[in-house]
Amino acid sequence: MAITKEVLADKVEAIEDGSVQVRIATIINEGTKELSRSFHRHVLHPSTKTEGAWGDTDISGEEDRVKAICNVVWTDSVKTKFQEQSDVN
After folding, report:
1. Where are the extended beta strands (E) located within 16-59?
2. pTM for the predicted model, two decimal places
3. Residues paired with 47 in a beta bridge
4. Structural domain boundaries of the chain?
């Protein structure tokens, strides 16, 4: 039986401040039997500050489902509120 590796965003959560948490599952299978599963998490913020200027967060490397959720959650008002809160901290 062939051993295969599958990597997918199996959990995506929108947080109150507009951030999106992504859990990536890495699954190793032998045929139909799962041999192992491990997880990695990362957070995407609605805006990113670079050299003192705010800009949209680059999500081009994310799965389509993650991009779709970010595009729904990250309205202009969410981005503005996130930037204002982050500038205070």
Report:
1. 20-30, 33-44, 47-50, 53-56
2. 0.86
3. 56
4. 3-88
